[in-house]
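## retry 2 of 3
previous attempt timed out at serialization; input unchanged, resubmitting
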Amino acid sequence: MERVDLQLAGGAGRIAARSFKPLVSPAPSLPLRRGRRGSDGPSDTEVAEHQRARLTGALITEISEHGYDGLRLRALCDGSGVSKRHFYLHYKSLHDCYMAAFAQITDALLDRLADAWMSGHGPQERLSLAVQCFAQSVAQEPAAARLVLCESSAAGQAAVRARLAFDARLEELLLAGLEAYGLQPPPAIVQAMFAGLSAVVRARLTNGRASELGEQGTELGRWAWCCLSAPAPQRHTDRAAPLPFRPSVRLLAKAGRTSEPARVRILAATLEQAAEHGCGAVQERAIRWRAHVGCEEFRAHFEDCYDALATVLAEMWGETLKHAIAVARTVHEWPHGVPAAIRTLLASLAADELFVRLAITELP
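## retry succeeded, writing output
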């Protein structure tokens, strides 16, 4: 059992340390086989549980070191000491093994956060303790956290859906907990708070700075409460409905046009393939075939397929933000230009499901 110290949001003192089960349980010890017939040895169920636990531990290590795309069955079996034959007795594929580990980690994390929430008194303290617990969990077990928060987009649509379901479950639990105190923040505000918190955590994990989260939990807890307790802005019903901008539609319209420059054809082909197969499955050969360009011409513009994908997303974001800023500049009173830009940005995101899926949902 590991121990996690949680501080009060106001910094008035440190509450008693609480014990939590690890996000990933270690392999259980097996009884020694003493009799010739093995009557005192481990049962088949115990052996299977032991092997699955070793495979899960090795999976987390491999993904932490090489990412989901670098996951290989031979390395997983070597790291766990489980043969390939026994691996396939437990899992259909590497993806199946990943999804099982994902479920184990998220279930344990939900239990841990629920315990942290219930240890507080009042909504502010409970929220702060839950946020601190989340930050501490990531700081102390970054490899397991990375598997859930950073690698799900590379693991395919099923993993992305599982991560979204996990996020939705957290939001539902928070809304229910706040409602018990008569607080009903708009669901969109709760979603935005979780999105901001997840972005901070993923950035620390990606940059190898997860240990910093252990010290930042208190500040993150304060920030989360400020998000939820801020007064609701006044509605301006007299404002004209914002005109959305759909960057993916504009770029896809250029796909297949041989009259377009090679760079534009490559970007459109990259977007097409990402739309069909996801960001983690784009392939340079397929992009070149769609864009009608050779290897040399492709490399004249991009280093590889992921460079092309990053350029697609960056340019779509740039065009969308440019459109929102242009709308803001049409507002004569500058304070009202900011909400006008935000409304336009949100309207654009709502109108372009493909852009949102690729640029926000599938990317860590």
